Input
Amino acid sequence: MKQGRPFSSSVRQNIIELLAVMGKSYGYQIHKIYLEIFPPCTRESIYYHLRIGVKLGELEIAEIKQEQGDYSWGGTVEKIYYVLGPKAQPKGDE
Output
């Protein structure tokens, strides 16, 4: 009997499904769309699964952009854009 946390995750699989349709996106945008379609989860959980997805090869970092804007914490933001990785297996479930 296996012990420990399983490698699969419904949240990460849902993120893979979103990226299969969207192509490329960043964490905050993924979280906004995720909440419209799937059961609620925290933004921290989305970012956690994005990091784990990169480690497992299910996701890849496409690019990192520094964007200017008027944010509460300052004038710039770093956006990490994700795409599907070689080990991603989108189901294509509508």
Observations:
- The mean pLDDT is 91.
- The CA atoms of residues 65 and 76 lie 10 Å apart.
